Amino acid sequence: xxxxxxxxxxxxxxxxxxxxxxxxxxxxxxxxxxxxxxxxxxxxxxxxxxxxxxxxxxxxxxxxxxxxxxxxxxxxxxxxxxxxxxxxxxxxxxxxxxxxxxxxxxxxxxxxxxxxxxxxxxxxxxxxxxxxxxxxxxx
Length: 139
Fold this sequence. Notes:
Distance between the termini: 45 Å
Structural class: mainly beta
Strand order of the largest sheet: 4-10-9-6-7
Low-confidence stretches: none
Number of helices: 1
Number of strands: 10
Strand content: 35-45%
Oligomer: single chain
Mean pLDDT: 93
Order of helices and strands: HEEEEEEEEEE
């Protein structure tokens, strides 16, 4: 787990793809620790980022039928934007996703980007990831 944390921290930078640990010297990357990840990982936006419409949401997911859903909420929890996409791989494998979600907001302020999958059983939001952000006004 410690190595996985180091690898994920260092590989967030675009110039780092793999990490070597001494003394063995064998390199490892994010894919080597995929089995330790939750069903949905959000790589952007990061917590605290200032975002503008459309906000680009990226990450990886191993979800039913590769479907990833996104909501943008204002500070009061009201939905101001929504969207969905499919990851590059479906159920049983981890795939990358990227989606641009438009939102409407009269004034800048706090908000949340929620990424989740919809339950096939009851339609609820499951594997929910919440990323607090600052929303730019749409004008």
